[in-house]
Amino acid sequence: MPSVPFHYVDLRTFCYATEDEKRVEQALRTFLPEEYEVERVTNTGFHGDRIVVLSARVDNADDVRHVLSRLTDLPNIDAVIDQLEDRVDDNNSLFLRLDKQAAFRGEVRLGEGLTLRAKVEAYPAKREKAVANAREALEAVRDEAI
């Protein structure tokens, strides 16, 4: 895939008081290139409990390729490609929810716990063009992985 039709990819997860922050960070790092910086913001939950928001923005083309290549490990990547009409919003952002427990084990699954938001390039900035670009990119990384 010579060019990547994404401006950036944001990955975010929450670490609740009952979770080990290092393990939650390890889950997030499943999708990140090595030694990638993870931002931490500490908040307080409704009941006074500590919640740490862990996030990373990937905006370098090679690093975005890395994140996309991890998505090809999804056992249902073809279903995700088929659902792009529902997964790309009117602001040309692609959304996926990923399983935090699976990510901790180094696996890639759809589920709860991790949020991936990828801003899709589209000229002109129309949703239909963004869906087509996202489809082309995901199919390309899927085909490279085969």
Gist?
This protein has helices at about 20-30, 60-70, 75-80, 85, 100-105, 125-145; strands at about 5-15, 40-45, 50-60, 95-100, 115-120. With about 150 residues, it is of the alpha+beta class.
Beta fraction of the residues? 25-35%
CATH class: Alpha Beta
Characterize the overall form. globular
CATH topology: 50s Ribosomal Protein L5, Chain: A
The residue ranges in which pLDDT falls below 50 over 5 or more consecutive positions are none
- The CATH H-level superfamily is Ribosomal protein L5
Protein structure class: alpha+beta
Radius of gyration: 15 Å
What order do the strands of the largest sheet run in, or round the barrel if closed? Answer: 2-3-1-5-4
The run of helices and strands is EHEEHHHEHEH
Largest sheet: 5 strands, antiparallel
Overall helicity: 25-40%
How many extended strands?
5
Number of helices: 6
Mean pLDDT: 95
Number of domains: 1
Query: Whole-Å distance between the termini?
Result: 14 Å
Known CATH architecture: 2-Layer Sandwich
Key descriptive features of the protein:
146 residues; 5 strands; 37% helix; 50s Ribosomal Protein L5, Chain: A; 6 helices; RNA-binding protein; Ribosomal_uL5_dom_sf; PAB1135-like; five-stranded antiparallel β-sheet; alpha+beta
